[in-house]
Design brief:
Elements: E1 29-33, H1 36-46, E2 49-54, E3 61-68, E4 71-77, H2 82-95, E5 99-108, E6 118-127, E7 140-142, H3 145-157, E8 162-170, H4 178-186, E9 189-193, H5 196-206, E10 209-219, H6 236-240, H7 242-256
Parallel strand pairs: 1-4, 1-5, 5-10, 6-8, 8-9
Antiparallel strand pairs: 2-3, 3-4, 5-9, 6-7, 6-10
Helix pairs in contact: 2-5, 3-7
Length: about 260
């Protein structure tokens, strides 16, 4: 199989450093949101400065600097889907970031998980293609326990209820069939996303630290699909509370790693 042809060479034909040069005073820790609404609210509230631009074919992505609780953090938006997300991730590594926190919604395979609840993935099933270019084949990949522990400590300090679990990372949003869903649940997955396993593989390959926070969205755990907050504009206030929480987690990652 083609995806078994892993090449561990750090030098590719095209490397991130071709397009993004290291910035000497670039923040050590980066926080990235997928949601356009969360990014727009972050920009409105914090009014950060722009420190870099990542060129894109469709549109450009900007990297911002914000000082939160006395700590400089880089904040940028990630595109949905492992290949595009990995490219932006690689670009920010090239700019100089060493620690990453990715923040986005996930589908809930367990109907007991509440809408917009906080979830910390601890491992990911590799049902996508990107990770196989960064790591030898395996069914799953583990997220660094120290990074998970740092996030847990923040939740405990703030008395925020959270769930730790395995996630199922897939490339194909419209191909989450009932039989595949049942198989992934049998493997222990409680959530489904489109980036986590790939980002773990990229981070290990590049020697940087990675953690992720999900907030629960659509429910795939019942007989009938329920999009819940995935499609509801009136749930924005519940999602906006993720912004300061993510920044606080970024500060702690910066301190501990």
């Amino acid at each position: 199989m083609i995806l078994q042809e892993f090449d561990d060479s750090k030098e590719a034909v095209i490397n991130p450093s071709f397009f993004n040069k290291k910035i000497e005073d670039f923040p050590k820790t980066a926080v990235s949101f997928f949601s356009h609404d969360l990014m727009k609210e972050f920009l409105r509230v914090f009014k950060p400065s722009t420190i870099a631009k990542i060129k894109g074919e469709a549109f450009d992505y900007y990297v911002y600097r914000v000082n939160y609780s006395g700590c400089d953090l880089a904040v940028y938006q990630s595109p949905v889907g492992a290949p595009a997300c990995a490219m932006n991730f690689e670009d920010v590594v090239a700019l100089g970031a060493k620690n990453f926190l990715l923040v986005g919604c996930c589908g809930c395979l367990d109907s007991e998980m509440e809408d917009c609840s906080i979830i910390i993935p601890t491992s990911a099933i590799r049902d996508e293609g990107t990770s196989y270019h960064y790591m030898e084949e395996s069914e799953e990949v583990q997220i660094d326990e120290k990074c998970v522990e740092i996030l847990e400590n923040v939740m405990r300090e703030k008395r925020i209820k959270y769930t730790k679990c395995k996630t199922w990372t897939t490339d194909a949003f419209y191909r989450e069939t009932k039989s595949k869903l049942a198989a992934r649940v049998k493997m222990g997955a409680k959530t489904v996303d489109m980036e986590c396993s790939a980002m773990v593989a990229v981070s290990k390959f590049r020697g940087v630290n990675f953690a992720q926070i999900f907030y629960g969205a659509d429910n795939l755990g019942d007989e009938e699909y329920d999009p819940r907050s995935l499609m509801k504009e009136n749930m924005l206030d519940s999602k906006y509370r993720i912004i300061p929480l993510a920044l606080e987690c970024g500060v702690k990652l910066n301190e501990k790693l």
